[in-house]
């Protein structure tokens, strides 16, 4: 009962079939396929399966999505062997590969598809408090080694190590005895919840509660209103907001201290009490400005899951990028056999995928995360015949989604993201301009594309493949005509662009070229980016698919800063942080100082940012060695204009990942808050070697809520590591 209650799982025929178990065929390739018995455990959160050598399992919370039919590369490669109604794919979070399964019947496949969708929806609909409850139920199951529904003190001691806490044994024993109401020397599930609450009692929150409680026992409407006004800086809405929060989070009307404190804690750990302003998470920006006025979430070498020399090309990489909110995808097109254009990293050992499969994937997933336009940045290395095939495939597969004409005849001004909702745009070379609608045929265009400059980064001219020495390439009219508003144009200089450039011209620079321009002519670069779009991509030397820091490019208004989405780390944290606002739609309106040519970049409102790092909660272990416990510290990093780049850190706390307390204040002056990002990083201190990463959270300075706030940490891959969090107090004031 305890586990089902916390999971919120209701009886469901699909789940019952999953619990009974099914023999499913795991499809890995045309050659290897194996039968395994898969079964949903009674806890409704673990799927166990038996391979030829051992029992294994995975958590249903690791599954991001379930796909029906031939919706993976494996199934596409063996489509003739298995009917689509018996096939489904489990997609895991992070970097783990998909699981492609085939059921014996269509009905059995549907049961697994619907059951998994139910479990995924249950998780998505959980609040932070419910997620914590589920986490506690997980702990109980993990501690209950002999699975008798009760845990001993010996099992609890082992659990404390797993919980990242080195606790005095006498103190742990005392808490255990207090929770053991039945005095059996064993804790049942409800007693374990009580033990956990005592173990993790939030003294920091209790002190705050008592500071604002007028009677020291409860938090009245007036008390909460005062807290919201004084600490959370909610202003005039504090009165009504307090009523709303009481209604939303007060778990009981008995008025006892524990119930009031529970409600207060529920508020502080909820989205309302998070550091990210909920108003900025919704679609709140003006989406009717020319789309050159927006930062656009952009991917480089989108087709790659790994490195650029021998990594795997995959349609899965496109799905992952689109689900992450990416709006500009890169497609490197080369001549394939049998007249089928292929996509891969040319002149390398990366695998190849069909152009038509990429476009079919775009058609299916383009607008699931965001309804705003998707831009296909096409690197065209195909002959005339296959270019015509590409153009026809784009039209046939995308249909009305493909933008084929200008919007309301607009040529001298770019349409807005709102104008282009639900549309796919092709970015590439074009013969003539948008004004030359009657161009009779194909022609030659410059061969200077991104890949040519990338190869110059990494090779000497003598060693370049012969085709990249050509200065011209034939472009067919069929493909040229599909380039609307996103015409690749070689950059000469800023004066030439100002006089002769069109709003729909897009210049592309490698990171090294962009840095050189920023160093020499930053002001001109900003002005250029108020008129037309710039794309910046990683150096060709980055064969490991590493990334450059995008902040320097955003500082001068570059709209498309293309990163390797497949590579986790600081750079993608910044990208995710910037684009997490505005409903994660992939378009963020640039600050006014970067949008208007008549304005000069002259920030004049520096702000003081004071961050009191109070405590941490349930930080994950980073080392699975027996007895290993983290020594966590927090570093706060500011990314923005050069004068704002800064980082400070707390001291480290020895042997406590469960509830470390720092109570240290870090202070920053932010001169240009409009473009600043703030990154909170937790690491495990190690005197001898490099510190281990524990978790992070990045957000725009402009989206920070003041007051007492929780920061819900993310993994290196950018996925949630609930219930890991930091508790901080934020104070932002005008700098004196």
List keywords for this structure.
736 residues, alpha+beta, 11-stranded mixed β-sheet, 7-stranded antiparallel β-sheet, 22 helices, 30 strands, 31% helix, globular, disordered N terminus
Q: How would you explain this protein's 3D organization?
A:
- The chain has 736 residues and is an alpha+beta fold.
- Helices cover 31% and strands 25% of the residues.
- Strands 13-12-11-14-15-18-19-20-21-10-22 form an eleven-stranded mixed beta sheet. It has a seven-stranded antiparallel beta sheet with strand order 4-3-2-1-7-6-5. Strands 26-23-30-29 form a four-stranded antiparallel beta sheet.
- α7 (169-179) crosses α8 and α10 packs across α11 (238-249).
- Residues 479-595 form the PI-PLC Y-box domain.
- Residues 595-715 form the C2 domain.
- Pfam families: C2 (PF00168), EF-hand_5 (PF13202), EF-hand_like (PF09279), PI-PLC-X (PF00388), PI-PLC-Y (PF00387).
Topology of helices and strands:
Blueprint: H1 2-7, H2 13-20, E1 22-27, E2 33-40, E3 46-50, E4 55-59, E5 63-68, H3 73-77, E6 87-92, E7 99-102, H4 106-124, H5 128-143, E8 150-152, H6 153-162, H7 169-179, E9 186-188, H8 189-199, H9 203-212, H10 221-230, H11 238-249, H12 257-269, H13 278-281, E10 294-299, H14 315-323, E11 328-334, E12 342-343, E13 353-354, H15 355-365, E14 374-381, H16 384-398, E15 424-428, E16 443-446, H17 450-458, E17 472-475, H18 477-480, E18 483-488, H19 494-500, E19 505-510, H20 511-531, E20 533-537, H21 551-555, E21 560-563, H22 570-579, E22 587-589, E23 607-617, E24 632-639, E25 646-649, E26 661-670, E27 677-684, E28 692-700, E29 707-714, E30 720-734
Parallel strand pairs: 10-21, 11-14, 14-15, 15-18, 18-19, 19-20, 20-21
Antiparallel strand pairs: 1-2, 1-7, 2-3, 3-4, 5-6, 6-7, 8-9, 10-22, 11-12, 12-13, 16-17, 23-26, 23-30, 24-25, 24-27, 27-28, 29-30
Helix pairs in contact: 2-4, 7-8, 10-11, 11-12, 14-15, 15-16
